[in-house]
Amino acid sequence: MSFIAYDIGFLVAFIAALIIFLYVKRSNLKRQGLLYLYPTKIGIKIIDTASTKYARILRPLQYVIIASGYILMAVAVWTIYKLSVMYLGP
User: How remote is the C-alpha of 26 from its chain's centroid?
Assistant: First the structure.
């Protein structure tokens, strides 16, 4: 039972730190659809470099990459659900 108290304590601490970080950096947040993104110059530079350098490989595989992303996201949600049921169950 004491581990649940630690879990909840760490969850509250993480959420508080996240809220403080996002409040301080709120001018850099960008809304895209339902998500709020925090773009960095390093990440944008890496994405641009990789997309131009490997365009010949990535262009034919774009639909495979998108489909695998959806499949992997569904597997991740299913795994989180199963772990939650296992963790909270009797």
Answer: 18
